[in-house]
Amino acid sequence: MVKLIYRFNNFQTQGNPKEKNILGGKGANLAQMAKLGLPVPPGLTISTTICDYFYKNNKKIPKKIVQQTKKEIAIIEKITKKKFGGTLNPLLVSVRSGSRVSMPGMMDTILNLGLNDKTVIALKNNTSNGRFAKDSYRRFIQMYSNVVLGVESYLFEELIENYKHTKGVIQDTELDENDWDGLINNFKDVIKQKTKKNFPQDVNEQLWGAISAVFLSWNSKRARTYRKINYIPDHWGTAVNVQAMVFGNMGENCATGVAFTRNPSTGEKKLFGEYLLNAQGEDVVAGIRTPQNILTMNKSMPKIFQQLKKIFKQLENKYKDMQDIEFTVENNKLWMLQTRSGKRTAKAAIKIAVDMVKEKLITNKEAILRVDPNTLDTLLHPTLDEKAEKKIIASGLPASPGAASGKVTFSADEAERLKEQMQDTILVRIETSPEDINGMHAAKGILTARGGMTSHAAVVARGMGKPCVSGSSAIKVDYENKLFKSGNFEVKEGEVITIDGGSGKVMLGKVPTVKPDISGDFSTLMSWADKYRKLKVRTNAETPTDTKTARDFGAEGIGLCRTEHMFFDEERIISVRQMILSKTPEDREKALTKILPYQKSDFFEIFKIMNGLPVTVRLLDPPLHEFLPKTDKDIDDIAKELNISHHDIKSRIIELHEQNPMLGHRGCRLGISFPEIYQMQCQAIFEALAECKKQKIKLVIPEIMIPLVSTAAEIKILRSLVDKIAEKFQKANSIKIKYFVGTMIELPRAALRANDIAKYADFFSFGTNDLTQTTFGISRDDSGKFLNDYVENKIFNKDPFVSIDDKGVGELINIATERGRKQKKTLKLGICGEHGGDPASVEFCEKAKLNYVSCSPYRVPIARLSAAQAYLKKK
Amino acid sequence: MVKLIYRFNNFQTQGNPKEKNILGGKGANLAQMAKLGLPVPPGLTISTTICDYFYKNNKKIPKKIVQQTKKEIAIIEKITKKKFGGTLNPLLVSVRSGSRVSMPGMMDTILNLGLNDKTVIALKNNTSNGRFAKDSYRRFIQMYSNVVLGVESYLFEELIENYKHTKGVIQDTELDENDWDGLINNFKDVIKQKTKKNFPQDVNEQLWGAISAVFLSWNSKRARTYRKINYIPDHWGTAVNVQAMVFGNMGENCATGVAFTRNPSTGEKKLFGEYLLNAQGEDVVAGIRTPQNILTMNKSMPKIFQQLKKIFKQLENKYKDMQDIEFTVENNKLWMLQTRSGKRTAKAAIKIAVDMVKEKLITNKEAILRVDPNTLDTLLHPTLDEKAEKKIIASGLPASPGAASGKVTFSADEAERLKEQMQDTILVRIETSPEDINGMHAAKGILTARGGMTSHAAVVARGMGKPCVSGSSAIKVDYENKLFKSGNFEVKEGEVITIDGGSGKVMLGKVPTVKPDISGDFSTLMSWADKYRKLKVRTNAETPTDTKTARDFGAEGIGLCRTEHMFFDEERIISVRQMILSKTPEDREKALTKILPYQKSDFFEIFKIMNGLPVTVRLLDPPLHEFLPKTDKDIDDIAKELNISHHDIKSRIIELHEQNPMLGHRGCRLGISFPEIYQMQCQAIFEALAECKKQKIKLVIPEIMIPLVSTAAEIKILRSLVDKIAEKFQKANSIKIKYFVGTMIELPRAALRANDIAKYADFFSFGTNDLTQTTFGISRDDSGKFLNDYVENKIFNKDPFVSIDDKGVGELINIATERGRKQKKTLKLGICGEHGGDPASVEFCEKAKLNYVSCSPYRVPIARLSAAQAYLKKK
Lengths: 875, 875
Hints:
The structure is a homodimer.
Chain A: E1 5-8, H1 20-35, E2 43-46, H2 48-56, H3 63-80, E3 83-84, E4 90-91, E5 93-99, E6 109-113, H4 119-127, H5 130-147, H6 153-167, H7 177-195, H8 203-217, H9 221-230, E7 238-244, E8 255-260, E9 272-277, H10 281-286, E10 292-293, H11 297-300, H12 302-319, E11 323-330, E12 333-341, H13 346-358, H14 364-370, H15 373-380, E13 383-384, E14 392-395, E15 397-400, E16 403-409, H16 412-420, E17 425-429, H17 437-442, E18 445-448, H18 456-464, E19 468-470, E20 475-478, E21 483-486, E22 489-492, E23 496-500, E24 505-508, E25 513-514, H19 520-532, E26 536-540, H20 544-552, E27 558-562, H21 570-581, H22 585-610, E28 615-618, H23 632-642, H24 646-656, H25 668-673, H26 675-694, E29 702-706, H27 712-733, E30 740-745, H28 748-752, H29 754-757, E31 763-766, H30 768-776, H31 784-792, H32 809-823, E32 828-831, H33 839-847, E33 852-855, H34 860-874
Parallel strand pairs in A: 3-4, 16-17, 17-18, 18-19, 26-27, 26-33, 27-28, 28-29, 29-30, 30-31, 31-32, 32-33
Antiparallel strand pairs in A: 1-2, 2-7, 5-6, 5-7, 8-9, 8-11, 9-10, 11-12, 13-25, 14-24, 15-19, 16-23, 20-21, 21-22, 23-24
């Protein structure tokens, strides 16, 4: 038979502290403390299984549980020498929820249960403290009535406020025993009026009312919402902990407090916390009295303080982690009420992990697993000063972390102009396009009204390590009048705003930021991660700045150098446009000849920085129309410059227009239609290599990548194009050059035909952005319109553009890996989509046995840590 | 050892007539005739294997072949009692190509080989016909010099023309022996001058020159182009046939002719052909003399005629097919030179197949396999009168067969206006959108400047059975000035043009058409096909007209009823737009309430016609912006009608704009975001069913189809939505209704997750249009820009939007079928993409074990025949 109720006390503890899924987090920790012999008030845990049963059986508690609980209450009675409902020495209990993971404030708790008109008298007598007893009773009535009986809190609060007004006092503490007595009667009247019943005097009725209420609170609206946001499954359910009450407010030899075993903000190994003498737990939180630093307890309660210190050490040794603790001192006796791994900042997480290795508490492998890679992000970007005042005017998606302030500007040109004047700007656009790249470079941050976490703005901003808030749908951008509105706020061009790309918040004015301090512990942890990971970590970069940043962050190569970004430079775009507007291959080649030296020098700079590490160069990918001007004015400018008629340019733009550019004339399809473009790009790569050789720079082996392949024929044709250029170049220059040719696997058909394609490819790089788009048939740019509906309906547990969809896209990656390697054992496999910097996706890549992941420069450390974790978890 | 040379004559024939891949078509047929004992001049066939060898070995003929050929020539000498190069009775031979499939006119032939300055004298003496001998020699020199030596033909033609001019004659026949003698000397001079060598007198040198030239002609530019167009693999190669010459021009007891054993145009069982007395084969073709009807031979050469008739019957009995025959009569002796299955019209194909079953020549299974399903198309649409004069002004893709004439109109509204005036129109658009539907209905035919074989215009036109020429890129449409230009032609609105959707031609003025006569043979053949096919054939239809047409053509249900087409009707579009412009679910429901009765009556009409057959109704699929107005004027109209500001409508249009609508907020994503739309549609379906019940119409079981599913959660949610509406409806109306719920599998992820999805689906319908788009990552609307490059580079052997790509898309269909049926044995599987009417794709569906195919009404007979063929081929 499955055990459903678990006893915990200092004599016998039945639950296995490791089984959080059965005991809930709180129950497991109580069981652990009890097993360690720490002073834990005795109690019982009703397992999460019953929650499921409760919902499946018309919200009834099974009889067996009622009987077993009675038995357990008797055990508590025996240990405490008190009696539940007893009129001499009554046992009071707390009833608390406890689910597998912490859902702070989401579910209900009831304290002081067991009080009624009779037991309250006993409590008064035993404590010789009438005010304490009555105050406890009225607190219980309030809590119980609200949680179990559904009487709204404000009704009680109003009564108290009115009474205090009449009596002419301000603080609750100014009310005495009689005052509370009177209020208790008033409370009872309200309850009778609202529920048509008297407040229950039967303590068992109280108990089962409370337990049911805790189960019911699992499905409260706020709990469901919290779970939705945090991807917590509904079927987990909550456990219920029933535990003997202890009181920190029975006199001056009582106290209550919360503490962390180490500083959760800095990680410093020093007790951190606060306590209040003669108080209940909620008083510490409520902030009516100012709690004292825990260290002062050394003077006020020296024995207890020493005992606490010892317990803290014991708990850290057991959990091998920093603990977040609650305790109560009742008449000079310490009671431990809760322990759990404490939440901490990224900085603290790293310091604690590294320190604990030094202390030999954990191994460096464990240390690696302790730090959530996603939190590293906050260490790599400037963050808003937490203490500063903020006027939040809108919010959007936290698309690229970091904070930035600057003058609002609505065009890339204006952003560039202001940058020349050394002014900081925030580029605000409905959405961005590749034409905005220069403006994005010039701006300190980017804010868009449309577009998801993987929209153009988001992807480019992350690549640049620039803060970005995307899809802030409350914002109405009015380009014409150069302003944007958000609710009642109207922000004009030139006004200063601040964006926080970590939280998605948009604020008025300049909010001060603090520069992060990447301590030595950070690099210590990273060096351990590097030791254990199998996956190589490369970066997606195409500018010397990005390349340099990525190298500093530990990138071991470039996994994706997007050559088209190089085309947008102001000096070159004119030749690029001339190339596109060419009517014959000859004219096109002429224009390409002008672009060649630029590309060559781009590659040279990158090769120089990478100094022998592999560089994957993707040949031109986006449809040509992306490079053409969009406004009539721009068209006029080009027309003048190229001596072509406005009409001709417009015709070409119309001709190149596409219904679905994502599925259009792009990628290798351009290489097939206009081989001269790819020829020029290969020529530039080889010339850059030759230049490196001349300058005695360590040679990289370029990996030339053909994008958007869906058939073996495409790569076959284009590979032979590359080989021909290489052969010609080597002959003409009498030098030997080493290079690889491979392809992106970013279409379902490419994955399925990987066996054929691998014949002509030295490597595969999974382009998971496009592979996700085509596998799901979802355009990431347009997904904003329904992604919310999809998350709300739990159709997507996670945005598949953020974390690899392992069941669909993942199967295609596995198919391609298997078929590709079957054809060619030496095939090198990597991933270069946005997913390369997502820890869950990195874990997938490790399982899929890829050779490397590639991500934006600022995510390189995250990928390094994730890769190590993935490898360690697999083992 | 592999045999490389095959002898054929009336004593011994080595080749197996079935091995066309070795002997080539001509060689196989010669071998067959020889085996039948028909009078075939003796000869030899060099197998196609040597062609491959030839190209792989530096274009050399292996020595072994030279030796064996010598031996075979000796055999021919023995039979003919002539000597190759002999000066008494010289053997002359023809050297002809012969590949696996006929490539008419693509490769080279040399006749009269073996003539030189000496043998020509012998020929003269033996035939007592000096003019014949010299004429034969000069023909040989011309042919050989052109084909083998590369001397251009016009040089010889010029010499003859000049000579005739000098002599003052017009016809070649007016030149005598001496004239040819002189010209032969002039020819030789030209050859010497151009090739620096004398014309070869060695007959063996002549022979090997000719054989090599035939092999070389396999790779001539025209042959390669022909193969590319007709998807003939390059590696097949050609065989070479060397055969003793016979002459139909040695005197009045000689003749030459061509004949069909039945009429290739009508299929009538009656000899059909023509001949010339005293002539060479090329004279029949050249048209200088008018050939006589073959039937007159009964008088001119009665014995030969009887012999021919007998042979024709013998050949038909052997090949069990109508034969296309060439023969020569040399000195009253009949020689058979060629036989092959004759090309025929669709009408003839059907009549011949049905007749031959009646004649017990073939079985009805064989008859089914005899008719190319694609050709049926020409029988189902009116066709242009072949005899009429035509002024072709442009050409495009043959997007939907049939011919139509009408006044050019550039807008859907104008087409409708003219239709009310009973005027025929051709709707000319750059491309069409769903808004043009009414205009397309009103017009007699559609012509677009952009868009492929599966563009909106093409798909809708085929669905309507309306002629369409799409992607006619030569056409420049000028909406503003209401005209289009094509080359030097300018066609204004109101001028009449004719389009031929079968050939893709656009003609000025009205070209008369003929209505096809679907004879009883057609339905006989169809009834046999129905007997043998396993696949059910449904149709894609949503209007009563289409539904009726499809039923008449034998559709067994509707596989795809696209409800959005019903939204475009003028009366309803306003409510549809109101619905889209609604800001709250309540407003949306109000607008939907107005649409409900229309949808109900649509469904009722369709259910009535289908009379109990299954009907698959696809819930709303396209993105909402497709329904919104596009021009400022239209926006104004709507604004007035709905009392909304122009600005508000424009904002909504901008808000709904999508980068890649194909991958946007459409399909079931609409159902998730706006469940009230799907609710209304289900309500309409159920109300229509109730109406049928009331009117005692046989009830269909509707199959409600959820489009664009990529996760099980989507179909789970939407299925429960349908079930809820059904339950409510049944309760409210106290009736029982039967229905199925299923999904389209049109995204790669849906195919991969078929196991999960099948839990909530009663049927899968493969939407191969979108599945092809997403699997390849190609937008069919945009593919026109590179599809040509792809076909030219042999990347696509077939347009994957026309014939299912069995290696990619096909694998996904197989995966989905297997996984879906594993989850649910009873799962019904069909296909409803455009591919459903493509014979090769139907064959794929039969292999994939689907239950049905669904296609546009006019392709239903094609699908029926294809399904039968697929089943018979599989067995």
